[in-house]
Amino acid sequence: MRCGNRVFLVGALTALTALWACDSQGHAASGDAPVAQPPREVACADAPQLRQRAVDDRRLVESSRSDQERILVGSRATFFTSLAILADLGCSVPLADADQPLGAALEAARQAEEERSFYVAANLWTEANFQTAQAIALLIRKRTADPEA
Question: Residues 2, 50: one domain?
Answer without folding.
Answer: no
